[in-house]
Write a structure and sequence with these properties.
By secondary structure, the protein is mostly helical. 92% of the residues lie in helices and 0% in strands. The chain has one domain. The relative contact order is 0.03.
Length: 172
């Protein structure tokens, strides 16, 4: 039974050794261990605080990013509107310039047509005058005493004039 119930001397030495070990641990071991636990706790607390700060900064960065995206979209919309306005303005200016150019060309063409018409009328008058002179010359050369040959001659000459006039009109 000595294994189950310790002897008084053994018990004394066990308590004495336990006390010495406890004293040594209390004097030099526990302060070091508790200091390390406090440092570790402080380090963990600092790490948690830094993680919260980083999380807050990330949240702020996300908000900043969303704000910047909105600003970029607003700027894009503004630029697109300005570009559309510039495009419309350029188109209107080009249309106005084209209308002015068309009007100018139309007026120039009208002027040229009027000049050509006047020139053609002068040519026609000149031809009519020349033909009249030619007819008169031919009539005067012919014997004027007889009226039937005169009428026949006039019909023949008028037919020639009409034929020549039709030929010229068809060529032009």
């Amino acid at each position: 039974m000595s294994l189950i119930t310790p002897d008084g001397g053994l018990l004394f030495w066990m308590v004495l050794i336990f006390g010495i070990v406890f004293f040594i641990l209390a004097k030099w071991g526990f302060p070091v261990i508790t200091g390390m636990v406090r440092k570790r706790t402080a380090h963990i607390q600092d790490s948690l605080k830094m993680a919260r700060d980083a999380e807050n900064r990330l949240g702020n960065l996300a908000q900043e990013q969303a704000r910047m995206i909105e600003e970029a979209r607003a700027e894009q919309t503004r630029i697109l509107k300005e570009a559309a306005a510039s495009r419309d303005l350029l188109i209107e200016e080009a249309k106005a310039q084209a209308r002015d150019e068309a009007s100018r060309l139309l007026e120039k063409a009208k002027t040229e047509i009027a000049a050509e018409k006047e020139s053609a009328m002068r040519d026609i008058r000149k031809q009519v005058a020349l033909l009249s002179v030619g007819i008169t010359e031919k009539v005067l050369r012919k014997d004027l005493s007889e009226t039937d040959p005169q009428l026949e001659l006039l019909r023949k000459l008028s037919d020639e004039i009409a034929a020549k006039g039709l030929d010229r009109n068809l060529r032009n």
